[in-house]
Specification:
globular; mainly beta; 0% helix; binds magnesium ion
């Protein structure tokens, strides 16, 4: 099954997080940056040296992140209830409110080729007893997928019918947006990924998606250059076709939160999974527009 999609075995590169999340490959430093959310810090792995260092601490519970066209990192902060930009260590707010209400706790983010910033806003960083932020109210009364346009600044609720939208990724031509919903049976819905057609500035259900069994949340996902979906699924990474046929499953020793493509040629899959960062070599790479890597074919 899927023997051409990965090459070699899974490597554990770092362990010592409480809940690792939000990986992105940073081309300017040739490193993988990710969040250790409950420890309130950001870590960075350098594949050239095989070492991990703390990139920043006291970061207000960052979660998912992506790369903008200018090479800066755009990330979600549960604690600041906002999406923010990190340009060479200088962190500035992008968006923190919707119609006068604070956001919940932005979870994951992607940037479209037109520069618009799409992010999910479930409540995990404001729930009672949270270790991933600060307790607080859901001020606008939902958990939406938003599109933020930087200039002039507008924030639009694009998807309002998911319970806890979480990971998200576009198809290579950006005609489809895949969104994970991690609410699950306790909220009367299955763990699932739902596909939306993106057309004329609107999102509408595409009628496709996949339901995952309990304990196998599709928290974070990425789409490769051939349009396949690489998603966390409990203690595994699953790879689906755009029609959601299962192509392969990579077993991981811990619960997986998220993935990203990276490495010098963009073909390494980095996996954040509970306490650890893992890597496996693949035969593909991320869509070039969202994870530019030099020397790829
Ligand atoms: Mg997430």
């Amino acid at each position: 099954m899927g023997d051409t999609l990965t090459v070699g075995g899974l490597e554990r590169l770092y362990t010592g997080s409480i809940w690792a999340e939000g990986p992105v490959w940073v081309p300017s430093s040739q490193t993988v940056r990710w969040s250790d959310i409950p420890n309130n810090r950001i870590l960075e792995f350098d594949p050239a040296t095989g070492t991990t260092q703390e990139y920043a601490g006291g970061v207000e519970y960052t979660n998912g992140r992506t790369l903008d066209a200018d090479g800066s990192v755009v990330q979600c902060s549960h604690g600041r209830r906002r999406v923010e930009r990190d340009r060479d260590g200088r962190v500035t707010a992008l968006v923190d409110s919707f119609q006068g209400c604070r956001l919940n706790s932005p979870n994951d983010v992607v940037i479209a080729s037109d520069g618009s910033v799409w992010f999910t806003d479930p409540p995990y960083g404001i729930l009672p007893g949270t270790r991933e932020g600060h307790e607080g109210d859901q001020e606008y009364g939902g958990c939406y997928v938003f599109r933020f346009e930087p200039g002039p600044e507008t924030l639009t609720a694009m998807i309002t019918d998911l319970v806890h939208p979480n990971g998200l990724a576009f198809s290579p031509d950006e005609s489809v947006l895949y969104v994970a919903d991690t609410a699950g049976p306790g909220y009367g819905v299955p763990l699932r990924i739902v596909a939306y057609d993106v057309r004329d500035g609107q999102c509408s259900p595409a009628g496709t998606g996949v339901e995952l069994e309990e304990g196998c949340a599709a928290d974070g996902l990425r789409v490769d250059v051939q349009g396949r979906i690489w998603t966390s699924a409990g203690p595994a990474v699953r790879i689906y076709t755009p029609a959601f046929e299962l192509l392969d499953s990579i077993a991981v020793p811990e619960t997986v939160s998220n993935v990203c493509f990276g490495g010098p040629d963009g073909r390494d899959l980095y996996i954040t999974a509970t306490t650890s960062l893992y890597r496996i070599r693949t035969a593909t790479r991320d869509t070039a527009s969202r994870n530019p890597a030099p020397n790829h074919d």
